[in-house]
Design brief:
The structure is a homodimer. The first copy, chain A, is an alpha/beta fold and about 425 residues long. A 6-stranded mixed sheet of chain A has the order 5-2-1-9-22-21, with no helix packed on it. Helices cover about 30% and strands about 25% of the residues of chain A. Chain A is globular and about 70 Å long.
Chain lengths: ~425, ~425
């Protein structure tokens, strides 16, 4: 891997997401050699990915070059690589570009989509965990309408214009809201030959309310907002099958739809070598103690979505979101600095800064620690917080310009199919 | 293709580039049915593509949704399709989404890369005629450096950091300049473990000066600017072969390079059915008369790069550039309106508005009709003109923000590998 030998201990961080970057920033200037490994050369601001999927933002504006994060950090190395296995006993990792020894290893690999073993869903549903996936959803949405203008069979046309979103968490809710805005503002002008009232957005949730991670008030307000926008919400409903055409559920409810977006489950993105049963928790996450250490390995840590720090107050670990990831990354950085100075590490304590979701134009729900907001002020809070946490001045400026333009013009101009998704449309002709 | 019958004559335009859009705009409000067909759903602002390749701009900011161009135009239809053949006798076209009859056909298919039959070059060289191709170049440039940090074999490392650009026209010159700026401003910070002085940009031109379509003064100034930036210019040199590793020329000059960008030739993007020998000119272009009509077909026209309007003053037709395309599109629109009113058409006359190329920060060459400029004022003129012709307020704003940011910060933040190019690096390890 061609990393020079150093007199300082080597920390290898796998993953440049929220957790990995927060950690790296804490280690600047320490007597350490830091190697950051990621399979992409950019940090990806996942909370805005649904806007890439729906033509509101360009992918580059939510991506930030990882090498730029490490500018002017001495003894920091970035490598673009896939980690294949970890050997915790020999303290080394094996990647597609070679082997690397470590003194400390931090696993910050995040999460990936969980289809719960349903291979049909895995094959035909769209997921949205990476930027290429978000772009595929964008292409598919647009291609569906291009296909819909070609048929006069109304049933097929309606199936092309039906979007089934599975999962009522923030991702599903935000996607449904964005699609509803497109239906209102853009489609009637872009497709004057289609009856756009027939576009249906179906949001399917297995539990009895959407946004189950938020307050009851937020859930009910979000439902109200979505229904005002024409989204149909199906609660207590589980999707069991999808063949690219028909969505089946546990009951006799079925949908004919060219699009199913799966936002109903994530799991830890585990690495071979650390996937032994004693290390893993529910949802493929690595069990860690309150110092983010793996059971039995003093020098191996996990932070962010992949880490499950179970406690009495939080038996399934923290939510797989940006906030716990950033806080764990920062905290582990401080702990490693203590470790270097032979001081005892401090236990991690999560500071809940709140949860929020946007539904559409002027509509969001925000649960902060001390107060809850819904509506237009929540929407401004949502935008401000997202701009604030987005990395890089240019990205902020570009996102801001896009938002202002989209708001004033009721528009989303990134509705371009750069690389087609090429769905098999034979059943929709 | 599901286009409704209409009482008005049907004009089919193939291609939504500069020519096709300029034509469509002229036909608004006429007693015509207009069908615009393109294989992409966006108009692509080709003059800024090299900035996408070099991480200065996001692809979406130079793409504009074609359906949006046609908003509020009555009796206009857009279809996303590949035209397979034209049947000029039966007055119909065959596409991947079905057949369509026409009363008037306008071929505005533009141009594609010409490798002059060299299959090795076609296989291993990068071309830059579409946005996906521009993104592939961006990925390859970045992947080369990620590969270069992995080897200590200096010869291999230098080959990974050598960029051979073939063709000294505006595309080649602008790409070489942009790469030289990246070498200066970004690479030393992104890759502190590489000796960036070893990055070589080789610009190869078959003729005895670069920018042969411009004045002698512009050529010599552009050469001076490029050489100041460290670009090596090889004149009177022809590339004959490239296997992905070694670039061969007509002489014994050779380069070891992981990247060869081919900007040395374009040809008309002809369609089957119109490729009969009597219709074609040198460079695969369709011969047209001064009304842009095809020889022998009163109702078939060609405009833009694909059209070759040879005359005594211009025996090989107009340059394959945006200006002649826009002017021909607009002029043909006016002629079709005359035709509808049974009035005689007017011959096309090209108004040469000048040619320009940018070389790098504060450096451009501009040949206008009455005066010629080089240097910083030319650079401002170049930027102003390009922003002016870019379609869409949002695109202009985003490009402007990027330029200001890149200028102030000596930066280009779109250096992200969204979809890897995945070159075979086995000879570079």
């Amino acid at each position: 891997m061609n990393i020079p030998q150093s007199n300082f201990p080597r920390v290898v961080i796998i993953g440049g997401g929220f957790a990995g970057i927060a950690l790296a920033k804490q280690l600047r200037g320490e007597e350490l050699q830091v190697v950051l490994i990621d399979k992409h050369n950019y940090h990806n601001f996942q909370p805005l990915m649904y806007q890439v999927s729906t033509g509101g933002l360009e992918p580059d504006s939510i991506a930030y070059p990882l090498r730029k994060v490490l500018h002017r950090y001495n003894n920091f190395f970035f490598r673009l690589a896939h980690v294949e296995t970890v050997d915790p006993e020999k303290q080394c990792i094996h990647t597609n570009i070679g082997k690397l020894d470590f003194d400390y290893l931090v696993v910050a690999t995040g999460s990936c989509t969980n289809f719960f073993g349903n291979t049909n869903l895995e094959k035909h549903a769209m997921s949205m965990k990476t930027i290429p996936e978000a772009l595929q959803i964008r292409s598919l949405i647009l291609e569906n309408f291009e296909q819909a203008v070609l048929t006069n069979d109304l049933q097929k046309r309606n199936a092309l214009m039906r979007f089934v979103i599975v999962g009522g968490g923030p991702t599903g809710v935000e996607l449904a809201g964005a699609l509803a805005e497109i239906k209102k503002g853009i489609l009637p002008k872009d497709y004057p030959d289609l009856d756009i009232r027939k576009v249906e957005i179906e949001l399917i949730q297995s539990g009895d309310r959407i946004l189950p991670g938020m307050s009851e008030k937020a859930s009910s307000k979000a439902e109200e907002f979505l229904e005002d926008l024409g989204v149909r919400i199906w609660k207590n409903t589980r999707v069991t099958d999808y063949d690219g055409h028909t969505v089946k559920t546990k009951t006799d409810l079925e949908f004919e739809a060219a699009t199913l977006i799966w936002a109903a489950g994530v799991q830890g993105a585990c690495i071979q070598g650390l996937d032994a049963e004693n290390l893993m928790m529910r949802g493929n996450r690595l069990a860690v103690n309150k110092y983010n250490q793996l059971e039995g390995y003093d020098s191996i840590f996990a932070i962010g979505d992949i880490a499950c720090m179970a406690s009495d107050s939080c038996p399934r670990g923290h939510a797989m979101m940006a906030q716990p990831a950033m806080q764990q990354g920062k905290h582990l950085g401080k702990n490693l600095r203590l470790l270097l100075r032979n001081k005892p590490m401090k236990p991690f304590q999560y500071k809940d800064k709140g949860v929020m979701a946007t539904i559409g134009r002027n509509k969001a729900v925000v649960d902060l620690k001390n107060f809850k907001l819904q509506g237009i002020i929540a929407w401004y809070v949502w935008m401000f917080i997202h701009l604030y946490f987005l990395i890089g001045f240019r990205n902020r400026a570009i996102v801001f310009i896009n938002w202002v333009y989209n708001y004033i013009r009721f528009d989303r101009e990134a509705r371009v199919i750069i690389r087609p998704y090429q769905k098999d449309y034979s059943e929709f002709r």
